[in-house]
User: Fold this.
Amino acid sequence: MTVVELTQKLLAFNTINPPGNEAPPARFLADMLIERGFAVQLRPLGKGRFNLVARKGPGLRAPLCFSGHLDTVPLGLRSWTVDPFGGAIDGDRLYGRGSTDMKGAVAAFVLAAIEECAPGAPDKDLMLLITAGEETGSDGARALVQSQTIESPQILIIAEPTSNRVLLGHKGALWLRLLFDGLTAHGSMPEQGRNAVVAAAAAVAALTTYDFATQAHPALATPTLNIGTFHGGINVNSVPDLAEIGVDIRSIPGMDHAQVRAEIASLLGSKARIEVDIDLPPVWTSPDTPAAELVNAAVTAITGDRQDVAGAAYFTDASVFTPAFGNAPTFILGPGEATMAHKTDEFVLISRLEQAVNIFREIIRRF
Assistant:
């Protein structure tokens, strides 16, 4: 089976999250890996959902681990010009929801692992972690870590979209929900109430002045704060008694999320109640480590391109896995195009898919 064919088979499974329904493709991949001699476990994650853990090799040392997720985001409101589950091909483009993010990558590392572990090949200690529920905050990865049954790898490769460029880490994510209580009253008598929307608006103005007071990271630049949602009131002729702001903070290594939360609480005062929706730390691997040299050399050997020091603004399952794995050297590396993730008419380049299989095989050989 080619990487294009396997990607098309995975695209045919509708794994839009919610609800996810990752069980059918997980079973399909499990059968495929078991047939090739891998030890496979399907770990339940609620109804119709599985994490897949596959292991190959003598187990004499910590493994090389590849990880990716099977869930996808919804299709969006715009109509697609192709069947989002059909795996249509147009030139070098393979279309489908999840083609870039990130079923194509899962297909690539599964095939690479199978091919490098064929009968007669040198023994390699490999582990594949194929998760459910990544798109809603790394739910599957968190369940695997909480089980305390996953060994720490020597190298962790998260195959998220990078156009086959090595990224040495990514920013963290701290998503806060800020709640403001008021006192309702008739809209013609606002003095009788306390307007929660006005309090929230003042908080928005204050947040635009917030200074992280931290030095820029050489690859991940500076932290960011985005006010993504603002909701308040039920009807126009009443004083609103509740307002809510959604804040998306992207952090860099060296930052303490608890400290950031405390500073925002101090900035806004007692008017705001703060709830945490997502708290995922940044991840970074030094380019000077032997693992980085191995991965960079393998990618350069296949692509011919020198790998510069770079990182990603988005977060991945590494935010959960890497700290739990004792900060194992972690790399973000996959065939998808980051600019196509979550878009209408999402596609992955077939040439990148095929290149990724060769890259992953080269990493396995060098490991």
Residues 172-280 form a domain with the Alpha-Beta Plaits fold (CATH 3.30.70.360). The chain has a mean pLDDT of 96. The chain is about 30% helix and 20% strand.
